[in-house]
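Figure 6 in text form: structure in, sequence out.
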């Protein structure tokens, strides 16, 4: 059975006034509160900060050439 509650003054207080008999073996697992989502902290929105110059002027056009050896877009005709 799963019971929910919170800790008050170092004692687990179960919701709904549930009382378990003394000596009842239990497992306590903490539940993390849902973090508020802030776009400023999301790495995806900050991806541009991690960009570095490559010195390859046609990298965006010919990414498949540089990664997989496909013909360059200029050579593909």
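Output sequence:
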């Amino acid at each position: 059975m799963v019971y929910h509650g919170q800790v008050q003054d170092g004692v687990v207080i179960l919701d709904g006034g549930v009382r378990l008999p003394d000596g009842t073996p239990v497992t306590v697992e903490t539940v993390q509160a849902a973090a508020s989502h802030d776009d400023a902290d999301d790495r995806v929105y900050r991806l541009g900060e991690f960009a570095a110059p490559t010195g390859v002027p046609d990298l965006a056009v010919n990414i498949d050439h540089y990664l997989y050896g496909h013909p360059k877009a200029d050579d593909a005709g």
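Caption detail: The helical segments are 63-68, 73-76.
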